[in-house]
Specification:
The complex is a heterodimer of chains A (about 425) and B (about 160). Chain A has about 425 residues and is mostly helical. Helix content of chain A is about 80%, strand content about 0%. Chain A contains 21 helices and no strands. Chain A is globular and about 70 Å long. The two termini of chain A are about 40 Å apart. The mean pLDDT of chain A is about 90. With about 160 residues, chain B is mainly α. Helix content of chain B is about 75%, strand content about 0%. Chain B has 5 helices and no strands. Classes of the chains: A mainly alpha (about 425), B mainly alpha (about 160). Chains A and B meet through helix 1, helix 2, helix 3, helix 4 and helix 13 of A and helix 1, helix 2, helix 3, helix 4 and helix 5 of B.
């Protein structure tokens, strides 16, 4: 049944059916063929969404929307421009630093992609070709779920159970997130030098940097409160994400004074629709997970993998290969719902560190958000800017390759991932 | 014409309900933190009501996502086909989605009726209120999907933005 289910899903997806509905239709056919009660469908759908930890997804989406309306993202961009604007490929560097800064206050790549595309792409397309302009925005937005806070890590930890703590996963993402940011900036410099782009950004003046830092201070207190609160155990990740919304509201109304009550309904509806897109995927994917479990796929998969290798690194490489393919065809949250319950217990049998395996899993699927044909970040950036995906893809490959290189580095040298969380007692 | 106006009214109602549900979620969850640290108190029903509002916000926003073309899919192959073939493929996949959502709507509706007399322990409301939005959202999605079958033209992806 499992093979038929997966093939049926892929056929419907290739025909252009939305991924969520393709998952649901494949599950429905399997339920009918297996003679299972049809009420399984709404049962699984409702119970998969009826989860307190998953509420972090709409909260982080909403916080992202509010940060755009509140002018928070503009302040981050002005700060980045004052620091790196004068480097070769200055605007690209500003985009990367803004993406990293936004990642510390937001938890999803989709909301970051929407925010950065809306604000930065008009200036970027004046300096670079449209493909490169959108590619750097997509790459910068993909830092969102790697640098804490991260809704993806919350979903992973929720699906993996008690062996993985959200705070530990958050801390695991810090060093690789910084390495990827630095790598992106070096890549932008190399491309700028090779293409002979002239220096365009603002000259570096210490006084200006300090002034921008002072203006952004209140924004950088947000990760201190949100991440600090979650890691320090003051509140749960979901509560932390709700605090992020309240913080963005307070900054927007009281500090930047750019937010208006009239902005709130559209921000909420946009966040709700993006969350519903993810929610529908999770709902239908959970029906598939149930059917795969009934078909004993976890046990069959564990036996197959153990017959291939007993070496933990070889297992990690096999999983990474699988996730590269999965990341191309499946939205990441649906992949967490379907695959974490299958693969996390097997990884524990191989003796892998739960935080190390969890972070590699998340990073791999985050990269998948940049790979066609199904890449959420690509969809958002193309949707906002109107640039065809094919045009963007030509320029986005070097960033994808760099992220896979960092993934391999983290796999081969685990302390890059585990040293910080272990030092903090995770 | 009447059908268009009815769907427009439904969309506006769904938007209002989603705004109310999301605002309620933020208010309840952040109030829990404030009460815990500010007043050393908590709302016994806080998590239940927040989860219920979450379920409502997700399933009521699914049809709004159908309307806005927000549900992601693989478009590379479809876009390579001639216009007529694209329209028929859109109709075919919308038909499959309609059948799926129709089944979900009917099954969820039956579960709502079965569970209506059973109340939540923390709140004096039926457990069925968790399942109700699944049925309503699926029914609303069916209406938009039928429109898609009729037109054969998927909504522009930028509609949400």
């Amino acid at each position: 049944m499992s093979a038929g289910l997966i093939l049926g899903f892929m056929l419907l997806a290739v025909l252009g059916m939305p991924i969520a509905f393709a998952l649901g239709a494949a599950a429905l056919v399997a339920v009918v063929i297996a003679g299972i009660d049809l009420s399984l469908m709404p049962h699984r759908m409702m119970h998969s969404v009826n989860s307190f930890p998953l509420m972090a997804i709409p909260f982080f989406m909403l916080a992202g929307e509010l940060m755009v309306k509140a002018g928070i993202v503009e302040r981050l961009i002005e700060l980045a421009n004052s620091v790196v604007g004068r480097l070769k490929g200055g605007l690209a560097h500003v985009t990367m630093l803004s993406g990293a800064g936004l990642a510390t206050v937001s938890g999803t790549a989709a909301s970051d992609a929407s925010a950065l595309s809306t604000i930065l792409v008009p200036s970027l397309t004046r300096a670079y070709d449209r493909g490169f302009a959108t590619a750097i925005v997509a790459a910068a937005a993909n830092l969102g779920p790697i640098i804490p806070p991260s809704a993806a890590m919350i979903v992973y930890a929720f699906m993996a159970g008690s062996s993985v703590s959200v705070g530990g996963l958050f801390m695991a993402g810090v060093v690789p997130g910084l390495i990827i940011t630095l790598g992106f900036m070096l890549l932008c410099t190399w491309i700028a030098v090779r293409r002979g782009w002239s220096v365009t950004g603002e000259a570096f003046r210490l006084g200006n940097v300090l002034r921008q830092l002072r203006r952004s201070f209140i924004i950088f207190m947000m990760p201190v409160v949100v991440i600090g609160g979650i890691v320090g155990g003051a509140f749960t990740p979901t509560e932390g994400s709700a605090i992020a919304v309240v913080y963005a509201l307070l900054v927007g109304f009281l500090v930047t004074r750019r937010l208006r009550v009239a902005d709130l309904p559209s921000a909420i509806v946009r966040a709700a629709i993006t969350s519903a897109m993810v929610g529908a995927l999770i709902a239908f994917a959970s029906a598939i997970t149930f059917l795969l479990t009934v078909d004993l796929l976890p046990q069959k998969l564990a036996a197959l993998l153990q017959s291939i290798t007993s070496h933990p690194l070889a297992f990690s490489l096999l999983v990474a290969g699988l996730l590269v393919v999965v990341g191309m065809f499946l939205e990441s949250n649906a992949a967490y719902i379907m695959l974490v319950p299958l693969l996390h217990p097997i990884a524990m049998q191989y003796g892998l560190d739960p935080l190390h395996f969890g972070f590699l899993f998340v990073l791999n699927l985050v990269i998948g958000m940049l790979t066609p044909p199904v890449g959420v970040v690509l969809f958002v950036v193309c949707g906002v800017t109107g640039v065809p995906m094919r045009e963007m893809m030509k320029s986005v490959w070097p960033f994808i390759a760099l992220m896979y290189a960092v993934l391999l580095l983290c796999m081969l040298y685990p302390p890059l991932v585990t040293a910080l969380p272990k030092a903090l007692g995770y | 014409m009447l059908a268009t106006r009815a769907i427009g009214w439904l969309d506006r109602s769904a938007r209002l309900a989603v705004i109310a549900a999301m605002s309620g979620m933020v208010a309840v969850v952040s109030a829990q933190v404030l009460l815990r640290y500010g007043f050393n108190a908590s709302l016994d029903w806080g998590e239940d009501i927040a989860r219920m509002l979450f379920v409502w916000s997700i399933f009521l926003a699914v049809p709004l996502g159908v309307k806005a073309g927000a549900h992601i899919g693989i478009e590379l192959l479809v876009r390579a086909l001639p216009d007529d073939a694209q329209r028929w493929l859109t109709r075919l996949t919308a038909l499959f989605s309609t059948i799926l959502m129709g089944v979900v709507c009917a099954q969820a509706g039956m579960l709502v009726l079965e569970q209506w007399d059973e109340n939540l322990p923390t709140l004096d409301v039926p457990v069925a209120l968790f399942m109700l939005p699944v049925s309503i959202g699926a029914a609303h999605s069916v209406l938009h999907l039928l429109g898609l079958i009729a037109s054969g033209t998927p909504p522009q992806r930028g509609a949400l933005a």
